[in-house]
Amino acid sequence: MKDKCEKSGLTTVKSDLVDAPIINELPIAMECEFIEYQNDETGIGVIGKVVKTSIEEANMSGDNIEI
Predict the structure, then answer these.
(1) Are 15 and 21 in contact, with CB atoms under 8 Å apart?
(2) pTM, 2 dp
(3) How many CA atoms lie within 13 A of 50 on its CB side?
(4) Quick check: 22 and 53 in contact, CB under 8 A?
C-alpha cells in the first residue's frame, strides 16, 4: 500500500485502534474491526464493526456531515 500512496501523493498514519492506515488527505475516516468474510451465491462481502469515525470540522454543519 505504501508504494500506491507514494505514487498518488497521499500520506498515511497507523490507526491506534485497528490494524489499518488512515489516509490523512481524506476528510472522513472510519476505523473498523474485521468481523468476518462472507462468500455466497450473491457475492463476496466483508463484515466489520466501526470503532471510530473522524470527520474534519470543515465537513460538519452542526451535527450533520456535509459531504
Answers:
(1) yes
(2) 0.72
(3) 6
(4) no
Of 5, 34, 1, which is closest to residue 17 (Cα–Cα)? 34
CA distance 64 to 47: 25
Cell 500520506, residue located: 11
CA nearest 16: which of 51, 46, 56?
Answer: 51
Q: What is the pLDDT of residues 19-63, one digit of tens each?
A: 999 999 999 999 999 999 999 999 999 999 999 999 999 999 999
Backbone angles phi, psi at 8, to 5 degrees: -85, -15
Residue whose grid cell is 456535509: 66
The answer to whether the beta carbons of residues 63 and 55 sit under 8 Å apart is no
Cα–Cα distance measured from residue 16 to residue 33, given in angstroms and rounded to the nearest whole number: 12
